From TrEMBL:
<protein>
    <submittedName>
        <fullName>ArsR/SmtB family transcription factor</fullName>
    </submittedName>
</protein>
<keyword id="KW-0805">Transcription regulation</keyword>
<keyword id="KW-0238">DNA-binding</keyword>
<dbReference type="Pfam" id="PF01022">
    <property type="entry name" value="HTH_5"/>
</dbReference>
<dbReference type="InterPro" id="IPR036390">
    <property type="entry name" value="WH_DNA-bd_sf"/>
</dbReference>
<dbReference type="InterPro" id="IPR001845">
    <property type="entry name" value="HTH_ArsR_DNA-bd_dom"/>
</dbReference>
<dbReference type="InterPro" id="IPR051011">
    <property type="entry name" value="Metal_resp_trans_reg"/>
</dbReference>
<dbReference type="InterPro" id="IPR036388">
    <property type="entry name" value="WH-like_DNA-bd_sf"/>
</dbReference>
<feature type="domain" description="HTH arsR-type">
    <location>
        <begin position="10"/>
        <end position="104"/>
    </location>
</feature>
<keyword id="KW-0804">Transcription</keyword>
<dbReference type="InterPro" id="IPR011991">
    <property type="entry name" value="ArsR-like_HTH"/>
</dbReference>
């Protein structure tokens, strides 16, 4: 696969698309929401309870996750339940945890990405 060839539909290279995807995962609040949703589909108030984030923070990040296609939503009576859009996202998060078991010391020592 040629990493520098532009995607015909978007003009983005494969590398740029990967970077954009990882920016979606790069926020601690979004990761907390995704972790909660890996367990089960949840309504906003349930996500707020599980993540201890504010309702407005959860809503803003859910909008981002929906726009990026990482999360999907379904109406459930008077609530909207949010869920992980693909089981591959859960698998990726599990793979990241396994990778961190190997490289955590280096990641924690890295000064280039200080929670920004």
């Amino acid at each position: 696969m040629d990493q520098v060839v532009a995607d015909r539909n978007t003009g983005a290279t494969a590398i740029e698309r990967r970077a954009k995807l990882f920016r979606g995962f790069a926020d601690p609040s979004r990761l907390a929401i995704l972790d909660a949703l890996c367990e089960a589909p949840l309504a906003v108030h349930e996500i707020v309870t599980r993540t201890e984030l504010s309702q407005s923070n959860v809503s803003n990040h859910l909008r981002c996750l929906l726009d990026c296609g990482l999360v999907a939503s379904d109406r459930d009576g008077r609530f909207i339940r949010y869920r992980i859009s693909s089981p591959r996202i859960t698998a990726l998060l599990n793979d990241v945890d396994a990778l961190l078991d190997v490289v955590a010391e280096g990641v924690e020592a890295c000064d280039n990405y200080c929670g920004e």
